Amino acid sequence: MSGTSELKGPDLTQGVFEADVVEGRPVLGHALGEAVILVRSGGKLFAAGATCTHYSGPLAEGLVVGKTVHCPWHHACFDLETGLAAGPALNPIPCFDVIAEGGRIRVGGKRDVAKPKVPQSSPKSVVIVGGGAAGAACAENLRRFGYEGRISLIANEQPGPVDRPNLSKDYLAGNAPEEWIPLRDAAFYREMNIDFSVGDGAASIDTAARTVTLSGGKKLEYGALLLATGAEPRRLSIPGADGANVHVLRTLADSRAIIAKAREGARAVVIGSSFIGLEVAASLRARKVEVDVVSVDKVPLARVVGETIGHFVQALHEEKGVRFHLGSGPKSISSRGVELENGKSLAADFVVLGVGVAPRTALAEAAGLRVDKGVVVDDRFRTSIDGVYAAGDIALFPDFRTGTRMRIEHWQVAERQGLAVAREMLGEGEPYRDIPFFWSAHYDVTLNYVGHAEKWDRIVERGSLASRQYVAGFQLGDKILAVVTVGEDLLSLEVDAAMKAGDEEKVKALVSG
Ligand SMILES: Cc1cc2nc3c(=O)[nH]c(=O)nc-3n(C[C@H](O)[C@H](O)[C@H](O)COP(=O)(O)OP(=O)(O)OC[C@H]3O[C@@H](n4cnc5c(N)ncnc54)[C@H](O)[C@@H]3O)c2cc1C
Ligand code: FES
């Protein structure tokens, strides 16, 4: 993805007319050689970097809510006063002084990163188990929020935190170089004074003594502990499912192993028509691999986004040469291919399983935490044992919109929860109200999904998928639980903000247009 590279709009150091800076509508310009947005919100003026630090999305086209701006591409959120980021972006944006005089507004110098105020409370030390989205976001935000105690980030996946969503998309397709994949490295953590170790994972937790023992025997004491161990790809219990030609995809090593087999003309069978399965299919087609997708589902993705979108996504893949075998599961796998339950045989040089994940809760269970299809947490990510938090794919947390508990497997959610835990550990947390969001890319079409609907009794639609401008609201009773959009990025942000504000009527109005 590319972003704002050349400078556009006025030189904001020269100023613009006051009347041209309209409430809630960012003015794109530049200052001191950087793209900058000038924003009026709640009567206050802000100037900040215009380029999202995730994948360089254009913040001038985003949504301003209070003193934050939200990126139209994948909903990262930036504080306009401090520049601090909330997932999927990690790095802050720069902030600038704003001067209003003589009917004009101009941008002054770049502000120094404000020294964080001393946190309200401070655990003696923090141990974070899991160097993925939630763990990495928690560790670095603790420092950004002013925590000065010891932070140990315990990872067991090489090379450390990676841009996991990219592993099935541009990286697997050959469109993103490997240097884009690591999110952080040892030098970054040294500079942040975070004790980062990768390899020696956590083996057990003693919540009475407040210690974590690593697999090599080392013991770490904690004042506060975050468990962010993520999820494990499911395997199948059919003959041949553990063969050398059968792959799953969770880590950089998994993605590399698939790439090694994905030579032009090779034949792959993808088992599972999940988002990851279909993204793998798309990426393999980009490498000119022959791809068959096998699924017990009759329509791909229908359980998540309904049949209309499912059929649309299927057609996108068929146009690119993917062959679907739906409504029948695999019976066995051999070195030559896959046998289906309906008797069909598909030749394959390799097989990729995209049949879902299971939360890694064994460590939490052994430590005596309450686990029920996930580690049970409250709306501040506190587990059943004092001083222990859980976030990301393993956390079963209360959804304020429906009053039910949910476990969400999204990148942005894990990063936001890691950040929320950092605040909570420092006595500055608040009940979690961020709305789940994910995106999924299929060739030139990206689906944006806001909210969470496990079931619905009605789908309210607007626009058309054929014209790539489409909105679908998944309604249960009188509440729209989730909204899928194609080509409606600003609307997706508006829905997100309305859901977070608890304004259900506005959600309905936005969906029906
Ligand atoms: C290929 C792929 C593509 C995806 N694409 C998208 C997407 O487009 N959009 C989206 O929203 N979501 C996407 N997801 C889902 C998203 O990546 C996850 O929801 C997210 O990574 C969850 O974050 P987490 O921190 O809970 O777990 P993870 O990121 O999985 O991190 C957990 C880490 O903990 C480590 N760990 C486990 N046990 C231990 C232990 N005992 N000691 C030390 N470390 C341990 C694991 O090895 C892992 O490194 C994708 C996932 C995959 C696999
Ligand atoms: S580019 Fe801004 S959130 Fe991804």
Q: In terms of per-residue confidence, which ranges show pLDDT below 50 for 5 or more consecutive residues?
A: none
Strand content: 25-35%
Overall number of strands: 36
Spatial sequence of strands, sheet with the most strands: 1-10-9-4-3-2
What summary fits the major beta sheet? 6 strands, antiparallel
Distance between the termini: 29 Å
Number of helices: 10
Named once each, the bound ligands are:
flavin-adenine dinucleotide, FE2/S2 (inorganic) cluster
- Helix/sheet category: alpha/beta
Mean pLDDT: 96
The shape is globular
What value does the Rg take, in angstroms?
A: 24 Å
Instruction: State the helical fraction.
Output: 10-25%
Written description of the protein model:
This protein is of the alpha/beta class. 20% of the residues lie in helices and 32% in strands. The chain is built from ten helices and 36 strands. A six-stranded antiparallel β-sheet has the order 1-10-9-4-3-2, with no helix packed on it. A five-stranded parallel β-sheet has the order 13-12-11-17-29. Strand 9 and strand 10 (104-110) form a beta hairpin. Helix 1 (133-144) runs parallel beside helix 8 (411-425) and helix 9 (489-500) packs antiparallel against helix 10. The longest helix is centred in the middle third of the chain and has 18 residues, at 302-319. The mean pLDDT is 96. The protein binds flavin-adenine dinucleotide and FE2/S2 (inorganic) cluster. Flavin-adenine dinucleotide binds at residues 129-135, 154-157, 164-165, 167-168, 201-202, 228-231, 249-250, 276, 360, 363, 392-393, 409-412, 414, 438-440.
